[in-house]
Backbone:
RNA sequence: GCUCAGAUGGUGGAACUGGUAGACACGCAGGACUUAAAAUCCUGUUCCCGUUAAAGGAGUGCGGGUUCGAUUCCCGCUCUGAGUACCA
């Protein structure tokens, strides 16, 4: 039979499913290997040809590892909570779970067609209650934990309570809100339960607080920083504004240092690690307090907690007048160059600092900055603007009077929202000083500040009191020491990363397992998990602007017992408490899912101890780099937390990570002829001739174009108005234009894997996706060339068959040449897979099959091994041939990868390339056992070489044994 | 602006540690088979000069450098893509 891929592929996919060929066991004598793909959000559009790229690569790797004797865990699931299903629900009234279900069915069908070796018994769906029960459970553990800086890990909140009970707040070194109370043990005990709860909330790893959020009115929800691009929502492109809201947050900043350090120990692409480093944004510097002019010197040592908190930290606490402004600086050595202070327009002290005389100015300026959108503010970095408050602070080291300004180049969200301006060393301060005529004080002898600021660290200090004459390092140390002595500053590490907002005003997400009592949040009891998403009448905010869950009629909790059903006797109604109305964000379910695969059906734990200790972590994770600062950071955070509380064993979840490149679209164009009146005609000009005519380009469906040649008949059938289109051809063909764009329906450049599989089969698709180029490189999809891979598989099939397609394999002993071809490919594929260079192994397979075809090789000894090496790439055809070779069905998946024998590659002769001054001219074939001196003599004696020498004596002859001869003349 | 990645034939790409640049495939051209087409097979295909062959010259974004020898290493520049954006 000819290569009948459709039948073969269907048969084997059925066989794998029925026999659970790829089921992984949680115990095995084999070493474990965990290959994970980033699970997809099941969108309504289904898979396009770009999606499976990473899945194919990981599948090849997983299948290869099985052949290499590993117990491989290779699961797949769905990140099935998300906005699109909800948007669709709003439009159609259809429950998101219904559309999600449908979309998953489509995904599953498409995935199955490609022949992946997933263990489907372990499938997870983040929107399934069996799954989100454990997402909620992890949330509860976070709520019940705080970060102890001395132990440098998360600890049970009970431990903190015990500390408060015996020692009060003294000696607590924890990551917390900036405004925590100082109290004794007795005072703590005297607090009401409510006061205690309010205080503990300031320490919990997930907590509620009023924060400035990215509010997207069009989507009706808040967005995480990584979901906002240039002031617009990443999804949909709607405007995003800053708004203050009560929000659940995750204290990820507690882990900033560990998240940073962990990067040094994982095998991830360097650019991705760099992105995380930038996102975390560690800067080492100092905090410095500038006392306010009029007020008496503060006694700042009483403050309990600003350390480690990343948030704004102003004043002495609530209700009291501030006595200083705190700034963060990375150049504390330049403190004698401070000629003014700048605080953000949103800074808490602005009103207090503004003198009556300056009030009008300041108010005008604030109004002006408020009007500017986030986008304008970012785009416009050149215009200098600001206003003087009228107040002064004192330089803590030289007592000089320093004016306080406000300006929008200082961001409220970073550091303390205030900077000490050193115009001689900082370009922004320099421009500001020039613009407003403020003094610019040189502080380093070699500084050149004629035209711009000079941030040098070289040279000696001048105009700088006790550090005059010192160098950078000593000066910094001396200034910090003096500030500490004065109690007006200290060395400080600042992180740019903020705590992550953990709530969406949306329906289609995990409910937060929290109810409210007297305005404070409490966890529901663990036995009541999962807290199921309630049914609601429509998926919109309530009339009063509450999130959609506010529409649920029975959305409350009875602490001692059960969830209140509607219409229940209202006796004891005061014991029913309202649930949280927001739901968890998209990243909640994806921040731990790799553990659920380890033990997907466990209803006692998120995964059993045994399963976690066996599988430990993900050995290879493949996915897109777009998740660099979202999913991949949050997952590392949750993993570290789970490690801290002893639930998992590894500090980092993903040992090795590979980013597959994005597949871009490749659009084709036709060119409509424009007539004299400037109107479009129904005549189309071939691309090569468009310079001679007036035309306008028009996207054309790439599926009716082959090798840039338009199928004219299909084009006429494509759209009614083209039915009687006419064409101006070149060489009898209509050639289309080409452009690389995003793959999207509106550009008619979407290529569907289903169509390609129907035409060429999954094995061809798999190999072609790999053949396209290096996995990590982004590239446009181009179906041109898929024929080459298809031909290769047919040729491969033919090796096992005679001219009439009868299966025909001989048991003759292989020749040296055949063994050489085989072992070349065994070695090559092994090396290529280990370095994830799948495209080069496809070429090598082609070379091997070409060679064996030329050798007319049909020997079992060769082909049986070749089939195993190809099986990870083209599993269906290999299963079929493996069975035809007489092996039990399905056993190729666990066959042993052939052992490479270098002896078969040993050559005794080598054709030395001989170059003259580095330019290759001729070859001389010599024995590989020859020594350098003999090679030189033999080469020089060669007739061709003599000809090139043309009687000249070589100046030098370089001989590299087994490689090259270079003659210098 | 900063950070990172990249630039090789008509196209996708290969060349792994500095050692024959262009493997493999597409496309194109020519040929075989065929009444014809499709399919299949064979040959050629970096560019320039050359009637063919030979011979010669140029050549991995641009300009320099190191080296017997550079796509590979170093310096400077241009362009493309990604991330980030007044981070004090």
Residues:
């Amino acid at each position: 039979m000819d290569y009948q891929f459709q039948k073969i592929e269907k048969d084997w996919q059925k066989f794998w499913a029925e026999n659970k060929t790829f089921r992984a066991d949680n115990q095995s004598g084999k070493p474990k290997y965990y290959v994970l793909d980033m699970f997809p959000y099941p969108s309504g559009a289904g898979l396009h040809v770009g999606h499976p790229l990473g899945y194919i690569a990981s599948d090849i790797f997983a299948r290869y590892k099985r052949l290499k004797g590993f117990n491989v865990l290779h699961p797949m699931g769905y990140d099935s909570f998300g906005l699109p299903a909800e948007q669709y629900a709003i439009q159609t009234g259809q429950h998101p779970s219904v559309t999600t279900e449908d979309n998953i069915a489509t995904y599953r069908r498409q995935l199955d067609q490609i022949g992946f070796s997933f263990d489907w018994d372990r499938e997870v769906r983040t929107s399934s209650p069996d799954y989100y029960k454990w997402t909620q459970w992890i949330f509860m553990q976070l709520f019940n934990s705080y970060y102890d800086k001395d132990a440098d890990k998360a600890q049970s909140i009970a431990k903190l309570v015990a500390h408060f009970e015996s020692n009060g707040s003294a000696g607590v070194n924890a990551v917390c809100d900036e405004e925590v109370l100082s109290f004794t043990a007795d005072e703590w005990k005297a607090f009401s339960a409510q006061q205690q709860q309010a205080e503990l909330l300031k320490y919990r790893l997930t907590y509620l607080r009023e924060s400035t959020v990215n509010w997207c009115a069009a989507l009706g929800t808040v967005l995480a920083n990584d979901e906002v691009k240039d002031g617009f929502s990443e999804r949909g492109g709607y405007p995003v504004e800053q708004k203050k809201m009560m929000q659940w947050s995750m204290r990820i900043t507690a882990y900033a240092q560990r998240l940073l350090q962990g990067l040094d120990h994982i095998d991830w692409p360097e650019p991705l690690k760099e992105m995380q480093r930038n996102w975390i944004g560690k800067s080492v510097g100092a905090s410095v307090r500038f006392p306010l002019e009029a007020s008496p010197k503060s006694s700042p040592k009483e403050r309990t907690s600003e350390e480690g908190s990343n948030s704004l930290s102003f004043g002495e606490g609530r209700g009291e007048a501030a006595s200083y402004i705190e700034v963060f600086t990375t150049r504390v050595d330049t403190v004698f160059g401070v000629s003014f202070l700048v605080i953000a327009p949103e800074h808490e002290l602005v009103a207090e600092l503004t003198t009556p005389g300056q009030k009008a100015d300041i108010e005008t300026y604030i109004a002006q900055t408020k009007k500017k959108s986030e986008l304008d503010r970012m785009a416009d970095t050149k215009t200098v603007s600001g206003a003087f408050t009228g107040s002064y602070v004192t330089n803590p080291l030289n007592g000089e009077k320093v004016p306080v300004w406000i300006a929008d180049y200082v961001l409220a969200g970073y550091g303390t929202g205030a900077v000490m301006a050193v115009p001689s060393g900082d370009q922004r301060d320099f421009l500001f000083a020039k613009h407003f005529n403020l003094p610019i004080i040189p502080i380093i002898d070699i500084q050149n500040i004629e035209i711009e600021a000079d941030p040098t660290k070289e040279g000696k200090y001048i105009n700088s009191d006790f550090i005059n004459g010192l160098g950078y390092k000593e000066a910094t140390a001396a200034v910090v020491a003096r500030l500490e002595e004065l109690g007006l500053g200290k060395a400080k590490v600042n992180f740019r990363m903020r705590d992550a907002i953990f709530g969406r005003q949306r329906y289609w997400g995990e409910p937060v397992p929290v109810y409210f009592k007297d305005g404070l949040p409490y966890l529901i009891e663990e036995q009541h998990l999962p807290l199921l998403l309630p049914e609601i009448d429509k998926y919109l905010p309530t009339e009063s602007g509450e999130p959609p869950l506010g529409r649920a009629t029975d959305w409350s909790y009875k602490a001692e017992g059960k969830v209140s059903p509607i219409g229940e006797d209202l006796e004891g109604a005061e014991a029913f408490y309202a649930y949280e109305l927001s739901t968890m964000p998209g990243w909640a379910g994806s921040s731990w899912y790799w553990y659920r695969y380890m033990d997907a059906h466990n209803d006692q734990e998120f995964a059993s101890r045994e399963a976690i200790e066996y599988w430990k972590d993900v050995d290879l994770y493949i996915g897109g780099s777009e998740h660099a600062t979202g999913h991949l950071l949050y997952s590392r955070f949750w993993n570290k937390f789970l490690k801290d509380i002893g639930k998992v064993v590894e500090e980092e979840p993903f040992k090795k990570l590979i980013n597959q490149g994005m597949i871009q679209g490749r659009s084709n164009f036709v060119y409509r002829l424009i007539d004299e009146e400037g109107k479009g005609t129904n005549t189309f000009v071939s691309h090569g001739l468009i310079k001679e005519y007036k035309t306008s380009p028009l996207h054309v469906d790439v599926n009716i174009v082959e090798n840039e040649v338009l199928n004219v008949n299909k084009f006429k059938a494509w759209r009614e108005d083209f039915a009687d289109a006419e064409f101006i051809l070149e060489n009898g063909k209509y050639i289309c234009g080409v452009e690389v764009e995003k793959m999207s329906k509106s550009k008619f450049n979407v290529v569907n894997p289903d169509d390609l599989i129907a035409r060429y089969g999954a094995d061809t698709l798999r190999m072609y996706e790999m053949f396209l180029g290096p996995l990590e490189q982004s590239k446009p999809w181009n179906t041109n060339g898929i024929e080459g891979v298809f031909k290769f598989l047919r040729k491969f099939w033919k090796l096992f068959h005679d001219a009439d397609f009868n299966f025909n394999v001989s048991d003759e002993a292989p020749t040296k040449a055949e063994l050489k071809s085989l072992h070349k490919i065994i070695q090559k594929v092994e090396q290529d897979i280990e370095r994830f260079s799948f495209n080069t192994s496809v070429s090598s397979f082609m070379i091997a099959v070409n060679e064996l075809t030329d050798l007319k090789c049909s020997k079992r000894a060769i082909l049986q091994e070749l089939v195993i090496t190809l099986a990870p790439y083209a599993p269906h055809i290999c299963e079929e041939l493996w069975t035809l070779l007489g092996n039990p069905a399905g056993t190729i998946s666990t066959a042993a990868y052939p052992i490479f024998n270098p002896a078969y590659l040993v050559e005794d002769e080598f054709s030395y390339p001989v170059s003259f001054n580095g330019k290759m001219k001729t070859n001389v074939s010599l024995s590989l056992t020859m020594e350098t001196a003999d090679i030189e003599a033999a080469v020089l004696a060669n007739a061709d070489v003599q000809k090139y020498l043309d009687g000249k004596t070589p100046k030098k002859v370089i001989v590299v044994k087994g490689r090259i001869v270079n003659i210098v003349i």
